[in-house]
Amino acid sequence: MVTIFKGGKVRICHDRKDLNRVIRREHYKIPTVEEVVVSMPDAKVFSVQDAKSGFLQIKIDYESSLLTTFNTHVGRYR
């Protein structure tokens, strides 16, 4: 399904329920602020980052990209 937002921004939506049922999920513990601060006692510089859309920037491996390929009337996208 294709959704067009105000201003002409396009978003392509997929139903990936079947894929989600069979993928192997890896779990990572995200450290607390306290754990991070303790791990760098001599740090002098800190920064703030906005990771709101970070998942859009994560490159997946080739084998995984084959599972996310989809077809449209103008071509195939991976």
TrEMBL record:
Q: Organism's domain of life?
A: Eukaryota
Q: Which InterPro entries match?
A: DNA/RNA_pol_sf, Retrovirus_Pol_polyprotein, Rev_trsase/Diguanyl_cyclase
Q: What is this protein called?
A: Reverse transcriptase domain-containing protein
